[in-house]
């Protein structure tokens, strides 16, 4: 019975977490976190937030769920959103791309066409 209450919420966590590998290790890490008194709702909400922050990233760079749980990453601050396109360098690159697109290829510009 104790194990049931400690594993409660793991299935939802597993569904939410963006990288589903090594389920047994993830469940063991979940149990360890629960034994330390970590609220399952906190773990699930943090996993939701983490999944949203990694939505457009290559999963190879997302930590395994056991690593995430064992490191206490559920207590981390939310990651900042990606830089907006108002970044000066991005705008300059777009301006140059538009300049060449509007005027033809770089070779045509060089030839004086």
What does this structure look like?
The chain is mostly helical. 60% of the residues lie in helices and 0% in strands. It has two domains: 2-80; 83-113, no CATH class. The chain has seven helices and no strands.
Question: What's the overall geometry?
Answer: elongated
Major sheet description: none
Strand content: under 5%
How far apart lie the N and C ends? 81 Å
- Provide the structure class: mainly alpha
Number of domains: 2
Low-confidence stretches: none
Q: What helical percentage do the residues reach?
A: 55-70%
Query: Measured on Cα atoms, how large is the radius of gyration?
Result: 23 Å
State mean pLDDT (0 to 100 scale). Answer: 84
Specify the number of helices: 7
The strand count comes to: 0
The arrangement of helices and strands along the chain is: HHHHHHH
Key attributes of the depicted protein:
single chain, 113 residues, mainly alpha, 2 domains, 7 helices
Task: Describe the structure in brief.
The chain is mostly helical and about 110 residues long.
SSE layout and pairings?
Elements: H1 2-7, H2 10-16, H3 23-35, H4 40-53, H5 65-70, H6 88-103, H7 106-111
